[in-house]
Amino acid sequence: MNKGVYIALLSIGLAQGLKIPIHYVKEGELRPDLFFQTGGMPSSHSAGVSSLTTFIALKRGVPTVDFALSLVYGLIVMYDAQGIRRQTGELTLKVNSLGELVDKIHKDETVKFEEEGPKKLKEMLGHQPAEVLGGALLGVLTGALGYLLTKKK
Predict the structure, then answer these.
(1) Which band of pLDDT confidence, cut at 50, 70 and 90, is reported for residue 140?
(2) pTM of the full predicted structure?
(3) Could you tell me the residue ranges of all domains in the chain?
């Protein structure tokens, strides 16, 4: 694998790892499982694509096709992370609430209802704009640091 891929994967791992202490500071709750979940601060999607784009810009230059592809791909990923995926998460909250409402209705019925419903849908899918920005800043920092540490002198 090339250095750009390593740096992007490192940036994604850092973003996922940072979610644990950030959540702890904000909520007072230690949740190591956040490392394996989507959503939250900072966005690992944004960190990964922005670190790769930064690395390519510094290594190959801004007027290259490599940079253009990485930039456009990265913008699409970040837009999707805070737009479509966030909306899906908000819709999931409503679907899960409906499931709880149906359960309450069935509990008040005289007919015994024993069907087991599906598991609750995961509610934290996408990102708030600040989470995307946080991931992008982390990615730019990681990409620049990766470039500086790996460039030949």
Answers:
(1) very high
(2) 0.71
(3) 1-83+129-153, 87-125
